[in-house]
Every structure is written in C-alpha cells, then in structure tokens.
Amino acid sequence: MKKHILVVPGDGIGAEVTAVGKQVLEVIAQKFGHEFSYDEALIGHVAIEATGSPLPAETLAKMRTADAILFGAVGHPKYDNDPSAKVRPEQGLLQMRKELGLYANLRPIKLFDELLDASSIKPEILRGADILFFRELTGDVYFGKRERLDDGNTAYDTMIYSKYEVERIVRKAFEAARTRGKKLCSVDKANVLESSRLWREVVQALAPEYPDVAVEHQFVDAMAMLLIKDPKRFDVVVTGNLFGDILTDEASQIAGSMGMLASASVGDSTGVYEPIHGSAHDITGKGVANPLASVLCVALLLDISFGLKTEAQTVIEAVDAILKAGFRTRDIGNSSTPADKLLGTRAMGDQILERLKA
Amino acid sequence: MKKHILVVPGDGIGAEVTAVGKQVLEVIAQKFGHEFSYDEALIGHVAIEATGSPLPAETLAKMRTADAILFGAVGHPKYDNDPSAKVRPEQGLLQMRKELGLYANLRPIKLFDELLDASSIKPEILRGADILFFRELTGDVYFGKRERLDDGNTAYDTMIYSKYEVERIVRKAFEAARTRGKKLCSVDKANVLESSRLWREVVQALAPEYPDVAVEHQFVDAMAMLLIKDPKRFDVVVTGNLFGDILTDEASQIAGSMGMLASASVGDSTGVYEPIHGSAHDITGKGVANPLASVLCVALLLDISFGLKTEAQTVIEAVDAILKAGFRTRDIGNSSTPADKLLGTRAMGDQILERLKA
Ligand SMILES: CC(C)[C@H](C(=O)O)[C@@H](O)C(=O)O
Ligand SMILES: CC(C)[C@H](C(=O)O)[C@@H](O)C(=O)O
C-alpha cells in the first residue's frame, strides 16, 4: 500500500512523542511491505512563532492532500495566563478541525491489564472496562459566536447545535455500538439546555432505526459520577464537544494514565490521530513523556484511515508485550517499578521498535 | 435562638430525606434550647401537579420570609424523556436560585474515614482529601438566552458572565481559602471560551488582594482528571455554574457516595440547604435512600445561616459516630456489611436521633 502521512508535532511534548510514532510507522511499512511517504508541518505556538498564524496556509494545504495525519499537541502556558491574547495556539487546532470537517472524535478507553495498578481507581472497578467515546468535534460552544459586551465587562459564548450535526455523529456511534456491546449512552444536559434537548430529540428519533442497540440517556453531571463509579456499565458513549472534552479527560483515569490514550478525528476527509494528553510543558524537553499514546495513535491510523487491521493489531500487541515485560514510563510506573524498567521517551520507543522488528 | 425554617421536600426521595433532616432540627432545638418553627412548601414536579407551576408564588413568598430553607430535590423522568415539555420541574429550582440571589453554592467534599472503602477510588488516594467547592449558581449557561431557530432544527444556549458576578463568588472563595489551606484553584476553559477568559481575568485581578492565598488555574478538562487522580492537592476550588455542576457530582466519589454530600446555597438573603443527590426516582418510596446528606445539610444550615457552630458540630459527630458503629445505608454499604447494620432511610434516621438525644 502506498500512502502519504503528514506529521504535525505541534507544541510541547508533541515533537518527542510523534517522533516515536513516526518510527513505528516506518517499521510497520518495512515489515508489511508498504510504501509510506512523510512530510511535516507546523501548528499552534510553534507556528505562531514561525509565521504569525497558528494554522499557516501551507500546513492546511499539506493536510488536505495527506492520506492521514499524525498529530502531537497544541498549547503554551504563555497564552493561558494572558486572557487577552488575540492569537492563540488552540485556534489552529479548532480551525483545523473545522476546515477538515473532523466532526467525529473517537476515543477508545481500554485498560491494558498490566496497568490496573496505575489508576487512582480500584482494580475491581476497572477490570473489563471498555468504552468507546464519540465526541462531536466541529460544533457546540467551540464554534458558536463569542463576544465581549459592555466595555469588556460581560462576555458570552454560544452553545449551538443543528440537527444534522447531531445526527451524523450519533449515527456513527449507533453503528459502532452494533459491532460491539450493542449499548449506546448519550450524554446531555437536557433538563436545562435547549441545545441538549435538540440533541436528545435526535437520538430518540434515530433509535428506532437501530432496534438492536439499547439506548440510555444520562445528564452530564450524573455521567461524570457514574463513569468512575461503574465504568463497566458503558459500551459506546456519544456526546457534544464540550461535555466530551471533559468526560474523556476524566475517563483517562480508567485507562490508567492520560499518557496511554489515543484519539481519531474523522469526518469528511483525512483522519487526524492525536493523543488526548496535551502539550505538557512541565515535562517538555526532559525526555520523560510517555510515547505510547502516539504509538496507539498509529494503530488507530492504520486501522481507520488505511483499513490495515493486522498492522494495527501488531502495534497494539507490541505495546501490550512491552507492558507485560514490565517496562514503564514515569506516568504509569510506581514505587515498585525496578530502576532498569523505568524508561524515558526514546528508550520506551526503542523497546516498541525492537519488539515490532522481532 | 428563635428561627423559622421552611422545609421544601420537592420530588422523588426529597420527602423521605428531608423528613429525617427536620427531625434532626427538632432534636437539636430541644437539646440546645432553641425555638425553631417550621413550614412546608411545594416545588418541582409535585408543584406542577398541584398548581401548574414549578415554583408557585406561595412557595416563593414563604421562602422570602424564612430564616433558612431545608431543601430536598427536584426532577421527574417524565420530563427528561420529553425534550419538548414547556413546563419542567428544574425551572422551579433555577428560578428559586435566581429570585433568592443564591449566587454561591458551597459543596464541601470530605470523606468520613469509615467510608474509605465505599468509593471506587483507592483509599490511599482519598485519605486526607478535603475540598471546598464554590460553584457559581445564578449565571452562566443556566440563565443565558436560549432559543430554537431554523424551524426548530437549530438550538442555542448562551454561556454568559459579567465581571461583578465572577468577582463576588471568587471573593467568597478567596476568603474561605484564608481560613483553610490557603490554596485556591480556579477552573475554566480560558483556552477556548471568552466567558472563561473574563473569569480568569477577574481571578487574576483579585489575587493580589489575597497574597496569603496561592492561586492556580486549571482547564475544566484537566481538572476532571486531576480531581480523581490526586484530590489531596486541592483545597478551595471555584468555578462557574456548569463546570461546577459536573465537577461536584464527579467529586461525590471522593466522599464515598453522592448520598453523603450536602450543599449550601447562599447569597443575598435566605440560605438554601440541599443534598447534591437528585430526586432518584429509581429508589423513591422504597425507604432505602440515604438520609445522611440531608442530615449534613442541617449541620451546614445551623453553621452558616444561624452561626450555631457547636450545634453543627454535634450533628456531624453524630453522623461520624453512627458510621463508626458500622451502620450503613445501601449506597455506602458493601458485601461485608452485616445484615443488622444495613439500614433503610428511617432506621438510619432513628440511629442519628438516638445518638443526638443521648
Ligand atoms: C487544547 C483544547 C482546545 C482541546 C479541546 O478542548 O478540544 C483539547 O483539550 C482536546 O481535548 O483536544
Ligand atoms: C436539577 C439540575 C437543574 C441541577 C443543576 O444542574 O444545577 C442539579 O444537577 C444540581 O446540581 O443542583
């Protein structure tokens, strides 16, 4: 198979972890006889520094012609502490999602057995949990009108959804539920929000088309509690952009660590594969970031964008094997991890590559 | 002390749990020689059934003249599954908050040692956690304009904050932090939302007035993760209405169970004391609801509205003693709770009353 992959490291630890992801792609290509070509592009803070724009036209052009995009992270503390900054790294990320029509963000939450102890949640609560989140990614308060009024003393943002936007993501979620545990949980705040009532109407209207899928509705507040109280009761979860942002970060504790979670953003064209951890400036450049989320992004990319199921499975098995062999990065290790098994970003990457080559 | 207390049971298990709360008030009055008088009023679904309105004028009038309000819960599944219902129980709750100017919702999250095992989170993560949440309660997307457009095919809600609204709640949080661990964490989504950037500006502007309090800012997604990963790092947390709704329900797992969490809504006038659990129609009328959140509401009421610290402490100690004696309701019990210690709502209430009388 001949494919062109764009690597977009972005900010913070993005460069360190996507470097490992790219090496995994190279080894997979070699092992299975594929021809992958690569390019790189800037986004976020590094793009602002280089070009003034968080999503330069050149980056967007390269994105449009790539077969898949391996993404790092976006963000910089400089802007977080300056609420009045007009140009912000995150604008690049949001604009990319909109321009590429990436309306469905898939976040599989599954614990590798070896990491049962890395979570703050009890092992007996976690064992067997396996959730697939569908987060809507191009609507909601992320893309509604926002403004200052009243000499800057009042500010608003608009949570907004149209039925067609809800329908296309909910359909994807129903279809995924069909191939899995046949349960769909839709999360909203329909007891207060009009946009949530519209969301719930759409789910209710579609449900009869999927009689084999059991549907439940949860309010986002109750869900934030249930998710960690009893994660095993969930199979596929579908929700809006903002609630999905919050709930999937929370759900990272189900997977042991944020450093283990990959996501796929898909929609009208090219898929973007991005760890759910952010730019993590506190550990940037220290060589300690966990590269496994980026490696698992590669597995999602191979599976979803290229349909290469065996290759994807090979990557996941390599991660599993390395964890079974006891190797850990700092975020998933603990006091009983032996010093020679506690690895930095590159060394962890090397273990994965060796295992893949074997 | 002579005081008038309005009991507003509302829907679902509200009646069962506030009945216990009221008995606790009666025993405390007797024990400490206070003169408490009582009245009752309707809100929510039961009010709609009786009067057509979720917050009848009579209820509101009674609320305005009470010295404090002991509140149950509001909500009914009938409306949840009917997104097009025009009159909804929750409107009564929201209107009450607005009419009474209850802009600050305090939610103390503290684990009783005996409940370390009732949580899905590991005991070593929880031991010592003690967080006081300040949730803004009369602004945000709860009270912004909402509308259907486009023949009903599009819906929006407006997240909106003015500086004065943020300032008054943030000041309360700073002042509370001063009397506690001297740390304040403000939660927003300032990397995306304009209303969050306004929120952050206000916190930054006030911080110099409280040089003894260490301030940190977290994005709501990161916070949803950190809260359960490392609850001990937080002291006072302040956030908007929607994020507070989600995060405090999540935080109920830190306290072992939602059935243990009380909240105080205060502001311009009368304080309202309300469990954070909802109407829980699945267990309504079965006599199994945990009344301890309502009992702990009484402790907050005595402390905050009446300044009766000893009385409040007496109630908390009674709860502690009963838990130490091994008594549990279903939600905080487990397979090793002996049958004669597993109590229903009334029996648990009776244990508390006996202990208070002793
Ligand atoms: C960086 C930020 C804008 C982004 C979001 O909120 O979508 C991030 O948290 C994510 O989940 O991808
Ligand atoms: C019932 C509902 C409207 C309410 C809210 O969202 O504020 C409840 O969840 C709460 O936390 O008091």
Brief summary:
Two copies of one chain form a homodimer. Chain A is α/β, with parallel strands linked by helices.
Question: What does this 3D model show about the protein?
Answer:
The structure is a homodimer of 358-residue chains. With 358 residues, the first copy, chain A, is α/β, with parallel strands linked by helices. Chain A folds into two domains: 1-102 and 261-358, Isopropylmalate Dehydrogenase (3-Layer(aba) Sandwich); 120-254, Isopropylmalate Dehydrogenase (3-Layer(aba) Sandwich), CATH 3.40.718.10. The first copy, chain A, has 13 helices and twelve strands. The first copy, chain A, has helices at 14-32, 45-51, 57-65, 77-80, 89-99, 123-126, 163-178, 194-206, 220-229, 241-251, 292-304, 309-324, 345-357; strands spanning 2-10, 35-40, 68-73, 104-110, 130-136, 146-149, 154-162, 183-188, 214-219, 236-239, 262-266, 271-275. Chain A has a ten-stranded mixed β-sheet, sandwiched between helices. Chain A has a two-stranded antiparallel ribbon with strand order 6-7. In chain A, helix 1 (14-32) crosses helix 11 (292-304) and helix 9 packs parallel to helix 10. In chain A, 57% of the residues are buried. The model of chain A has no long low-confidence stretch (mean pLDDT 96). Chains A and B meet through strand 6, strand 7, helix 8, helix 9 and helix 10 of A and strand 6, strand 7, helix 8, helix 9 and helix 10 of B. Strand 7 (154-162) of chain A pairs antiparallel with strand 7 of chain B, so a sheet runs across the interface. Bound molecules: 3-isopropylmalic acid (2 copies). Chains A, B: Homodimer. Chains A, B: Mg(2+) binds at residues 221, 245, 249. Chains A, B: Belongs to the isocitrate and isopropylmalate dehydrogenases family. LeuB type 1 subfamily. Chains A, B: Its cofactor is Mn(2+); Mg(2+). Chains A, B: One of its GO terms (molecular function) is magnesium ion binding.
